[in-house]
Design a protein that fits this description.
The complex is a heterodimer of chains A (109) and B (113).
Chain A (H helix, E strand, L loop, with lengths): L8 E5 L4 E6 L8 E7 L6 E6 L4 E2 L4 E4 L5 E6 L8 E8 L11 E6 L1
Parallel strand pairs in A: 1-9
Antiparallel strand pairs in A: 2-7, 3-4, 3-8, 5-6, 6-7, 8-9
Chain B lengths: L4 E3 L2 E4 L5 E6 L6 E7 L5 E8 L2 E5 L7 E4 L6 E5 L8 E8 L7 E2 L3 E5 L1
Parallel strand pairs in B: 2-11
Antiparallel strand pairs in B: 1-3, 3-8, 4-5, 4-9, 5-6, 7-8, 9-10, 9-11
Classes of the chains: A mainly beta (109), B mainly beta (113).
Chain lengths: 109, 113
Amino acid sequence: DAKTTQPPSMDCAEGRAANLPCNHSTISGNEYVYWYRQIHSQGPQYIIHGLKNNETNEMASLIITEDRKSSTLILPHATLRDTAVYYCIVTYTGNQFYFGTGTSLTVIP
Amino acid sequence: EPEVTQTPSHQVTQMGQEVILRCVPISNHLYFYWYRQILGQKVEFLVSFYNNEISEKSEIFDDQFSVERPDGSNFTLKIRSTKLEDSAMYFCASIGTFQETQYFGPGTRLLVL
């Protein structure tokens, strides 16, 4: 079962930052936090992942709290194409993913 | 950029028939996975495969399912006798030995009538 809790839905205005929270209070020391998204029924798309430190790439930033019990995915300038279901997944590297229901993000024009 | 590919994109079959779903993982990747997503539901793990054997499987992956890596490039999922409830999107994923990220294919939509 998924070890994460995410709000079921969020809205964000186009051009604004989208901040998607995730709770993972039972995370183990060597488990990573992964973020993926799924647009319609397409294959899940990798966004970013991290262990302890905050991470940034061309798509997003990942902020992990010091106790690692929660994290936030930040899309700095949301576009309409960012409308998708966003999944926060906690697992060991190489292990299978257990997906939750994710957060359905709607970017509003 | 390398990507995972899957064929066919869509398949319609009659209940009781065998289907084989094919995946070509990213070259040099060594860990392979199958997931499924029933319409409107979560993505569910089916099986992981490494070094030519199953590493982990979920309770969904019963005797009707099998996986194989018949050659150096393909990774297949076989359903021996399809049921109506096997209708779903099936996703393949792969990961390299020194990588931390699973890359997913576009999926095969299976419809069992």
